[in-house]
Design goal:
This protein has helices spanning 20-26, 47-54, 67-80, 103-106, and strands spanning 7-13, 34-40, 57-60, 86-88. By secondary structure, it is of the alpha/beta class. Helix 2 (47-54) links the parallel strand 2 (34-40) and strand 3.
Length: 107
C-alpha cells in the first residue's frame, strides 16, 4: 500500500529514551493504516537507536531545533510524500493511544 492510501502519525521526540518504545508500542495497532514518523529533535540520549530498532520511519535533526521545527519537519515529510492525513502524537505524555477518528472515511 503506497503513501497515497495511508495516513502518517508524526511523533516529535527529544531525549525520550524512557518513553519512546512504549509510545511506539501503543501505535502498533494503527500501523496497518498509518506510517509512523519519529522526528528526533537532536536527542543526546539513546532515542535514535531505540527508534531505529523498531523499524518505524525516523528523521534525525542535526541539533535540538525545538518542538515547532520538529513538527514542521514531520509535516513537510508528509506533504512531500503525499499523505492525505497526518496526525501529531506526543512522545512525552503518559497516556493510552486514542484511535484516529474514522480515518478510513478520510482516506
Amino acid at each position: 500500500m503506497g503513501a497515497s492510501q495511508r495516513g502518517l502519525i508524526i511523533v516529535p521526540a527529544y531525549n525520550e529514551e524512557r518513553n519512546i518504545r512504549g509510545v511506539l508500542d501503543e501505535l502498533i495497532p494503527y500501523r496497518r493504516d498509518f506510517d509512523v514518523l519519529v522526528v528526533n529533535d537532536g536527542s543526546s540520549d539513546t532515542t535514535e537507536g531505540l527508534v531505529r530498532s523498531t523499524g518505524v520511519l525516523q528523521a534525525v535533526l542535526p541539533c535540538n531545533l525545538g518542538y515547532s521545527r520538529a513538527v514542521q519537519t514531520g509535516l513537510r515529510f508528509g506533504v512531500r510524500n503525499r499523505y492525505p492525513l497526518m496526525i501529531l502524537f506526543d512522545a512525552q505524555t503518559e497516556r493510552e493511544a486514542v484511535p484516529p477518528p474514522h480515518h478510513t472515511s478520510l482516506l
